[in-house]
């Protein structure tokens, strides 16, 4: 059973709204309902962000995703979760610090590369977003959002398309990303990755 919407007040009242900076969650559990596990993970992290929520799951190289504005219990129901089948998944609760509060900025971001699609959920801030976006624009990247999260994802996609493997692509892309943040990254046919700025990348 999905919990009822007991956190409605967090979304309605600006004065009482928790001021955090997004929640990210990742799980690798081939024999479990990863969408529902991610749902409950996001529900537990609802205090981190109340603007939007999203889940992306991979199954046999295909990505299934759903995201929308609102609290976790407003965005997902049993029917939607049943369509997010897979062996591994990531999820995101958004509290915007860069980019407007709009559906197009909801996460996870999904990017297509020569090695297939990947999904990324991001918490934190970049201090060089304009410079990074300009760099990516010069490379011919197309932006669908105004968030720095998409810029990070596109930077990784650029390096994958240049021929690097996933780990090398992430490490190279993060050299362009200045700030403090954490990421969960979902790629085809492999478990969730966590990359933490000022730390190390682990698969």
Describe the structure.
The chain has a single domain (21-202), classed as 4-Layer Sandwich (Glutamine Phosphoribosylpyrophosphate, subunit 1, domain 1), CATH 3.60.20.10. Helix 5 runs parallel beside helix 6 (148-161) and helix 6 packs across helix 7. The longest helix has 14 residues, at 148-161. The chain is built from seven helices and nine strands; from the N terminus they run H-E-H-E-E-H-H-E-E-E-H-H-H-E-E-E. 29% of the residues lie in helices and 29% in strands.
Key traits:
203 residues, alpha+beta, Glutamine Phosphoribosylpyrophosphate, subunit 1, domain 1, 5-stranded antiparallel sheet, 4-stranded antiparallel sheet, 7 helices
Write the layout of secondary structure elements.
Blueprint: H1 8-12, E1 23-28, H2 34-44, E2 52-59, E3 62-69, H3 72-75, H4 78-82, E4 88-94, E5 109-113, E6 116-126, H5 129-138, H6 148-161, H7 166-174, E7 179-186, E8 193-196, E9 201-202
Antiparallel strand pairs: 1-4, 2-3, 2-4, 5-6, 6-7, 7-8, 8-9
Helix pairs in contact: 5-6, 6-7
